[in-house]
């Protein structure tokens, strides 16, 4: 146990150094909020991987693999091929060209001077803020499971300690600190996750022994339709998080910070490959854990128990740090995006315009403190129900993606249609969840209804003036150079 704590303290010192060096690099609010928009290819790839590689999916998603074999591989790994390739090919370059700071600002630019443009911005502000304010609690719940299993610490006590550490790291240098932590986490992840796979391989006595605990159909990648978590649910989850990530503020914030649109695009492609491979290792490792520990009452403990029971104390310490960095980096990432929304889309726009750079940095730190407290409260509630918590939270944010995608590829689309599309999608999903509809009848049907309403309202309400106003927006996102300043002046 002493070795684990020594290694843990060593890495906390490394994180403290990252935070301090980030603090020294902050010269203005853009540095704090978007790392000065200077993030290069390696750093952007690292922060995208670390921001996605979270404890909610790591622990909650892996439990699906423990229970249902390769259904968990689909659910935890393979769906990300679609998720991030869609992001790369549809929005990555365009987001960076717009030179924005938050997702709601996208709507502000797209529907500039149109009727209801302010309404759609406000609505998207509160929807994206809803997810980023609550989702870190699901990640914290995953971290508490890791701490309880690998260190024997009470989950509530461990949650308090982790939140304090995350807060101290986050308030120093904003996104600069977050990216620095993500780079450290990324290095540990690409080494540590394959190491967990080999530990599982040894503990299980080889892949061939998976047949002892799984039916043949749960060892094939062919779709399985009749388990509690099945192929339709995996596809639904994939569709849902595809929409979620298009509207995800923490991913958007990182893409916005890229040096240019080509770096944003390439980093997303590398991120796709790495996430699929890493989560694939996680899912198979958890399946191997079932061979060694076939009767766990809490499948969410499978991965940390594999590390605790079948690795050397030094390896345990390093893997403990890896798993904790996964959680800490994601919590800090989502916190930063939540506070960015609060400052850019509420404080700077409505309550405290034209204040000093220092004012907005300090306001961000106050916001981080508030979200840290709420994360701790909700994190305790989410323990034991990690994946479901994330599932429900993602449904509503995903409804923002339909207007975003339509806005990017249909010139006639207007603010009225975007509001109607978003509102109807949210309304349907709320009714579906309240009435206990099956998962695959919630977000997929909600997306279809949302898209259809958007099309109908567009055809009914779009004017020639709306189309003319959208021309400059499409000139900007389709151009080969950054014309954002000229676009803002003309708007």
Automatic annotation (TrEMBL):
<feature type="transmembrane region" description="Helical">
    <location>
        <begin position="44"/>
        <end position="68"/>
    </location>
</feature>
<feature type="transmembrane region" description="Helical">
    <location>
        <begin position="417"/>
        <end position="434"/>
    </location>
</feature>
<feature type="transmembrane region" description="Helical">
    <location>
        <begin position="390"/>
        <end position="410"/>
    </location>
</feature>
<protein>
    <submittedName>
        <fullName>Sodium:solute symporter</fullName>
    </submittedName>
</protein>
<feature type="transmembrane region" description="Helical">
    <location>
        <begin position="359"/>
        <end position="384"/>
    </location>
</feature>
<dbReference type="InterPro" id="IPR038377">
    <property type="entry name" value="Na/Glc_symporter_sf"/>
</dbReference>
<keyword id="KW-0472">Membrane</keyword>
<keyword id="KW-0813">Transport</keyword>
<feature type="transmembrane region" description="Helical">
    <location>
        <begin position="313"/>
        <end position="338"/>
    </location>
</feature>
<feature type="transmembrane region" description="Helical">
    <location>
        <begin position="122"/>
        <end position="150"/>
    </location>
</feature>
<feature type="transmembrane region" description="Helical">
    <location>
        <begin position="229"/>
        <end position="248"/>
    </location>
</feature>
<feature type="transmembrane region" description="Helical">
    <location>
        <begin position="74"/>
        <end position="92"/>
    </location>
</feature>
<feature type="transmembrane region" description="Helical">
    <location>
        <begin position="6"/>
        <end position="23"/>
    </location>
</feature>
<keyword id="KW-0812">Transmembrane</keyword>
<feature type="transmembrane region" description="Helical">
    <location>
        <begin position="440"/>
        <end position="461"/>
    </location>
</feature>
<feature type="transmembrane region" description="Helical">
    <location>
        <begin position="269"/>
        <end position="293"/>
    </location>
</feature>
<comment type="similarity">
    <text>Belongs to the sodium:solute symporter (SSF) (TC 2.A.21) family.</text>
</comment>
<dbReference type="Pfam" id="PF00474">
    <property type="entry name" value="SSF"/>
</dbReference>
<dbReference type="InterPro" id="IPR001734">
    <property type="entry name" value="Na/solute_symporter"/>
</dbReference>
<feature type="transmembrane region" description="Helical">
    <location>
        <begin position="156"/>
        <end position="176"/>
    </location>
</feature>
<feature type="transmembrane region" description="Helical">
    <location>
        <begin position="183"/>
        <end position="201"/>
    </location>
</feature>
<dbReference type="InterPro" id="IPR050277">
    <property type="entry name" value="Sodium:Solute_Symporter"/>
</dbReference>
<keyword id="KW-1133">Transmembrane helix</keyword>
């Amino acid at each position: 146990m002493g070795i684990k704590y020594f290694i843990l303290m060593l890495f906390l010192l490394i994180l403290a150094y990252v935070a301090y060096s980030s603090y020294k690099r902050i010269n203005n609010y853009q540095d704090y909020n978007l790392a000065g928009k200077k993030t290069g290819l390696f750093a952007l790839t690292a922060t995208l991987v670390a921001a996605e590689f979270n404890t909610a999916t790591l622990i909650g998603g892996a439990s699906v693999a423990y229970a249902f074999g390769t259904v968990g591989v689909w659910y935890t790994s393979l769906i990300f091929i679609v998720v991030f390739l869609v992001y790369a090919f549809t929005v990555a370059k365009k987001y960076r060209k717009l030179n924005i700071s938050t997702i709601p600002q996208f709507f502000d630019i797209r529907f500039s001077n149109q009727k209801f443009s302010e309404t759609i911005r406000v609505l998207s502000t509160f929807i994206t803020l809803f997810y980023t304010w609550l989702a870190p609690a699901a990640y914290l719940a995953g971290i508490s499971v890791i701490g309880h299993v690998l260190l024997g610490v009470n989950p509530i006590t461990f949650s308090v300690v982790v939140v304090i550490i995350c807060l101290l790291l986050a308030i120093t240098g904003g996104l600069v600190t977050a990216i620095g932590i993500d780079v450290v986490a990324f290095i540990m992840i690409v080494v540590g996750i394959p190491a967990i796979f080999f530990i599982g391989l040894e503990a299980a006595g080889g892949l061939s022994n998976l047949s002892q605990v799984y039916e043949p159909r749960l060892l094939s990648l062919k779709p399985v339709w009749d388990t509690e978590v099945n192929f339709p649910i995996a596809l639904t989850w994939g569709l849902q998080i595809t929409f979620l990530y298009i509207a995800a503020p923490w991913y958007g914030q990182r893409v916005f910070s890229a040096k240019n649109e080509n770096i944003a695009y390439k980093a997303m492609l590398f991120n796709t490959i790495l996430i699929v491979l890493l989560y694939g290792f996680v899912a198979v490792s958890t399946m191997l854990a079932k061979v060694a520990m076939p009767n766990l009452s809490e499948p969410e403990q499978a991965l940390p128990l594999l590390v605790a029971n079948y690795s050397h104390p030094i390896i345990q310490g390093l893997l403990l740090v890896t798993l904790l960095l996964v959680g800490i980096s994601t919590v800090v990432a989502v916190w930063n995006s939540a506070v960015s929304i609060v400052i850019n889309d509420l404080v700077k726009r409505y309550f405290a315009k034209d204040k000093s750079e220092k004012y907005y940095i300090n306001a961000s730190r106050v916001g981080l403190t508030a979200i840290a407290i709420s994360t701790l409260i909700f994190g305790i509630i989410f323990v034991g129900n990690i994946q479901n918590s994330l599932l429900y939270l993602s449904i509503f944010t995903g409804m923002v993606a339909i207007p975003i995608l339509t806005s990017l590829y249909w010139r006639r689309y207007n603010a009225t249609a975007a509001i109607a599309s978003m509102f109807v999608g949210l309304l349907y999903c709320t009714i579906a969840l309240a009435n206990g509809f099956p998962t695959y009848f919630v977000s997929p049907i909600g997306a279809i209804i949302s898209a259809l309403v958007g099309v109908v309202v567009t055809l009914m309400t779009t004017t020639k003036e709306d189309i003319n106003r959208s021309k400059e927006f499409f000139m900007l996102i389709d151009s080969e150079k950054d014309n954002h300043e000229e676009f803002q002046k003309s708007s």
